[in-house]
Specification:
The complex is a heterotetramer, with two copies of chain A (about 325 residues) and two copies of chain B (about 325 residues). Chain A has eleven helices and 14 strands. Chain A has about 325 residues and is of the alpha/beta class. In chain A, the strands form three sheets. A seven-stranded mixed β-sheet of chain A has the order 3-2-4-5-7-6-12, with helices on both faces. Chain A has a five-stranded mixed β-sheet with strand order 9-11-10-13-14, sandwiched between helices. Chain A has a two-stranded antiparallel ribbon with strand order 1-8. The mean pLDDT of chain A is about 100. By secondary structure, chain B is of the alpha/beta class. Chain B has a single domain, classed as Thiamin diphosphate (ThDP)-binding fold, Pyr/PP domains (Rossmann fold, 3-Layer(aba) Sandwich), CATH 3.40.50. The radius of gyration of chain B is 19 Å and the shape is globular. The chains are: A alpha/beta (about 325), B alpha/beta (about 325). Bound molecules: thiamine diphosphate (2 copies) and magnesium ion (2 copies). One thiamine diphosphate sits at the interface of chains C and A. The site of one magnesium ion has 6 residues of chain C, from β4.
Chain lengths: ~325, ~325, ~325, ~325
């Protein structure tokens, strides 16, 4: 196979799932002829028609609420929220309904919310946020975040087949990247298994989504300096594969967590706390966090670049931690 | 066909159930919160009487009547209010969070307005699956101000979903009179905003409600799309316990009591010669018995297991 | 009074500005995103012409025209698109996040529909403070599906706020034709749902827009409450850059170009003898010059300071 | 003065602020004649009228959005969200607009959102949540949470006078408690100063809102056992008074954070991470978190009591940590 972009991989995986299970359908704004803001669904309407590739009006609370109802009634809706920033309009539906259905009402809700997130495109403060933190502290919502083409396919399948609401985070900067794969769809992976992206012994770098990709790049740089970083790509935030993280932390004794998003109140805080709770005595230094400053994402490319935690700054932070005495 | 005696029985059951709930709260035998629907029994019963078993109903925070009308077991409903393991939500939900798809009942709901979008999704799945299910979504006059209802009706109209949105216009949203929450005289007017059928009926007349729903459901099943029905009624109870009802006069309430649906249907049934005074008494006694049994069932039911309280968050 | 020559100048400036923006994007000289309003200049200019200095205007994601019509400095606007320190948001906002209360301009806004609630709040404060400010809130046909707009209009109607909600019906929300997003033929119909004045005008005729707004603003100032005005126009540009416009035909676009407002006003001005061909050329050249100067200003402006990027999160 | 309930203190403080500044007005559902679901505003309409004690329709996104607009235009709206769970409907307004106004648009937004939160009343999963975590990771929103009557007054005043959006968390279980105060309103306290509720040297217990109240009760119990807990009531979550927390942690070397809310992804995680980052070497044990299990709040009183972190379980956890070797 010639290399495919993440966008193409997601599209082909969606197509395969639509073929496999007639209960699957897609809904979202401009996912039909337009193919969605980032083109993920482009062309699907030709094969599956407008009933299953369903354009919605601009009504995030309404169509997310409807998707939840459809899911409880037996459908498997895959909803696209055009930018993750707009999921703020549907927090009630997700937090007060979707997340409570299993626990309180004893109902399953096989719903997937796919959404492009993150910065790096100069789109500004309301089109660049990583908002997984809004749902990470809410029991009842699974969160997955692929960092590779293979995982984009694998996690999307697992998400669609899971009987629970699953948030699938698609980073905008990953869409155009190309991946050599034997076949698409790739084999699904169970939700809740981190991926050890690179083995190393000098420190552990934990990340997800685009930051995991950047962390791998950073680790390659560091290897040239004979710093061997173990890079762990979470893939799944809920459930969190704390065992894998803790095992690595015990081994390397130095941990850096990288997060795109303001430093305060992010996912890294929880991971850090869990690691301290489990491997405190094994750590040489407290778990370090590399994140964005506590400010909105500015639109100017120069400013945005100054706040995003790319490979360079990851390498610098990792180097600093690995060589600290 | 609308069966007035059956409707009467359901209305009686709901009334007695709700009276019992208020009493149990005031005695401190149940805790938490509940919103009773005294005075609104006819809308619940009229709607439910017009539905087929495969149809779906979504309810609100004020949902005991809807659920009982749809066939809920009063014992399990009461057990939920008592926080028992035998309750519809195994003690996890309470009054505002109960669902029983086996009865076509898709939930009481504590978030004002939210259930209408959920109902649109049920209707969408009914359409996608090619069934002839119709979905009725109750909401209140107060809820009509929620944007998600606008969104849901727009969506249902565009997609011709088999959804009937039923506004129980009971005059108030908590303390807020409809005139301070709804910018038009009748919520049904808003059907124009979506190009769908809108109508208003006497919500204290179960037959009128039944007939309106039956006709709209028939249309919906044939692909005629959604509709908006407003049922005019009055919430005789306070909003929830602790409501001092300072926002309205006792005179106004007295006037409303003179229109209340239970007396009206009793009068109609006697006038028609269907039931005489003795028969009415028997029906009343039967309803009281069922409610007493429900309470007994609830009180005899085990408490939920605290050790498993954190389980079942995911399906 | 509506001054057609002045309107023409503003429309020309907007058109040239937007053309420049598209070119700058395609040349990679500016990054990020922007939504141009080519074809819609008459609504922006017609509305702004009818407002008083104390009035407020809220805009959308497609806001350059609104802002320029309200008096924005093209240089500072362009500088914002270039991500410079002299931009209206000091490079922090970009196209969709600019505000200048000194000009009565309360923001472009990247969240579809959100600005209408914000505008209702401006109108509420105008009423509370006893000023005679009127607030105009632009929104799109696509935005009309957002629940928050329903909520805002209901609220404005109940409170008689001096708010004029102006729907720029340009036929599409991104790729979605209005017929697939709006369940009625005309958004103005929805005024009925709130018991407020609703009207539709030719959005490509700045005078018609001006006159409608002037009348509604006058009513609003006198306490007459909110109104809903629909301006029918067409978005000649793509939704944003990268839009292949596969959801509509070139024929349809050609037909729309024949109705486009700039040619129409030029023809009207020549027909009325106000401007001859030579004068038109002079006006065009002036607009081009202003845009060229704006670009030069932007490019000569300093980059924002990266060291202070995290500052100013709180006031 | 005879002791006043928290409800009365809040009410009198609101009245004082309404008298002090004509730009202040209140809005929310049923805050007029009804006085709000918990009676905080009861009677205010008599003095200030329906214009300034403004009942809203049930439209959380709409009236929060409107309050933001009014605040930018010069008003000082104090909004009541009837239950914190309903703030999920207004996340877009708060996250994408209110929180961005200073940074991006250079506008101040003197907005207060008051909201009753928390469990203990058997109200069920959509009427009992502590959702400060939704906003804690969003730069631009201040969060304060009084645990005493004096602070209810002090923080409310500071919140109203602050030029930024401030979320004021009012715990339902605190409303009926009575407090002896010299006068109401009490002197305002600057936002961002924790309160050392009790001095001690054996361990530090950090909490806020109702849990801080319970932590003080727990500490009193423990004192009888000769365990001296230092109890710190955060009062302000954003800004966070990390200096005070770190100083106490350095002294006691053992820290317990108590949170009402699911364990994963809460505020305690951030505080724990910051403390580890600052005082790692001084800690004898990793920072401990006592929170709720990762599930919704069940409605049955027995189940709800089993998940709430009251004085008993706080005392047990504190005892455990203080006596650990
Ligand atoms: C989103 C949300 N906002 C507010 C509330 C609080 N609340 C519960 S019921 C109610 C009034 C509802 O009025 P209406 O829709 O007319 O129904 P009724 O109580 O009259 O049956 C309010 C404000 C809520 N439960 N959810
Ligand atoms: C809450 C939200 N949902 C979706 C979008 C993405 N989006 C931006 S503009 C747009 C279309 C808006 O259509 P319309 O309101 O008709 O305005 P127009 O673009 O035609 O000017 C969409 C879907 C958004 N910015 N915000
Ligand atoms: Mg009502
Ligand atoms: Mg449009």
């Amino acid at each position: 196979m010639s290399p495919l972009t993440t966008t193409q991989i997601l599209r082909e995986t969606l197509a395969a799932e639509l073929r496999r299970d007639p209960a699957v359908f897609l809904m979202g704004e401009d996912i039909g002829a337009y193919g969605g803001s980032f083109g993920v669904t482009r062309g699907l309407i030709d094969e599956f028609g407008a009933t299953r590739i369903r354009n919605t009006p601009i009504s995030e609370p309404g169509f997310v609420g409807a998707a939840i109802g459809a899911a409880v009634a037996g459908a498997r809706p895959v909803v696209e929220i055009m930018f993750m920033d707009f999921i703020t309009l549907a927090v009630d539906q997700l937090v007060n309904m979707a997340a409570k259905l299993a626990y309180v009402y004893n109902q399953s809700c096989p719903l997937v919310i796919r959404t492009p997130m993150g910065g790096g495109r100069g789109y500004g403060a309301t089109h660049s946020q990583c908002l997984e933190r809004l749902f990470f502290g809410v029991p009842g919502i699974r969160i997955v975040a692929p960092a590779t083409g293979a995982d984009a396919s694998a996690l999307l399948q697992s998400a669609i087949r899971d009987p629970n609401p699953v948030l699938l985070l698609e980073h905008k900067l990953l869409y155009p990247l190309r991946w050599e794969l034997d076949a698409v769809p790739t084999p699904p992976v169970p939700l809740g298994q981190a991926r050890i992206a690179r083995r190393g012994s000098d420190l552990t770098v934990i990340a997800w989504s685009w930051c995991a990709f950047e962390a791998e790049r950073a680790a390659a740089q560091l290897a040239a300096e004979e710093i061997e970083a173990e890079v762990i790509d979470l893939r799944s935030l809920n459930p969190l594969d704390i065992e894998t993280l803790a095992a690595s932390a015990r081994k390397t004794r130095r941990v850096l967590i990288v997060e795109e998003g303001p430093r305060t109140g992010g996912i890294a805080a929880e991971i850090g706390s869990q690691l301290h709770e489990r491997v405190f005595g094994d750590l040489e230094f407290p778990v370090q966090r590399l994140a964005m400053p506590d400010c909105p994402v500015p639109s100017a490319r120069s400013l945005e670049a100054a706040v995003m935690p790319g490979a360079e700054v990851i390498a610098a932070a990792a180097r600093d931690l690995a060589t600290r005495v | 066909m609308f069966d007035p005696t059956q409707a009467y029985d359901r209305m009686l059951l709901i009334r007695r159930f709700e009276e019992a709930v208020e009493k149990l709260f005031s005695e401190g035998r149940i805790m938490g919160t509940a919103h009773t629907c005294i005075g609104q029994e006819a809308t619940a019963v009229g709607v439910a009487a017009a539905l087929q078993p495969q149809d779906a109903l979504t309810s609100t925070h004020r949902g005991h009547g809807h659920f009982l009308a749809r066939g809920a077991d009063p014992g399990r409903l009461m057990a939920e209010l008592f926080g028992r393991a035998t309750g519809y939500s195994r003690g996890r939900g309470g009054s505002q969070m109960m669902m029983e798809p086996a009865l076509g009942f898709y939930g009481t709901n504590g978030i004002t307005g939210a259930s209408v979008a959920f109902a649109a999704g049920l209707a969408l799945q009914a359409q996608l699956a090619g069934t002839d299910r119709v979905v009725v979504a109750f909401f209140g006059d107060g809820a009509s101000s929620q944007g998600v209802i606008h969104e849901s009706l727009n969506l249902a109209a565009l997609w011709k979903l088999p959804l009937i949105a039923v506004c129980e216009s009971n005059g108030y949203a908590m303390s807020t009179p409809a005139s301070c929450g709804v910018s038009v005289d009748s919520v049904a007017t808003r059907a124009v905003a979506y190009g769908i059928t809108g109508a208003t009926v006497d919500g204290n007349d179960p037959r009128a409600v039944h007939d309106a729903i039956a006709a709209l459901a028939d249309r919906g099943r044939k692909g005629g799309g959604p509709a908006l029905l407003e049922c005019r009624t009055y919430r005789l109870s306070g909003h929830s316990r602790g409501d001092r009802r300072e926002y309205r006069t006792r005179d106004e309430e007295q006037a409303a009591w003179r229109q209340e649906p239970l007396t009206r249907i009793e009068q109609a049934l006697t006038a028609a010669g269907t039931l005489d005074a003795a028969a009415l008494e028997r029906h009343r006694a039967a309803a009281e018995r069922r409610v007493a049994e429900a309470i007994a069932f609830a009180e005899a039911s085990p408490m939920p297991d605290e050790d498993t309280v954190a389980e079942g968050v995911f399906a």
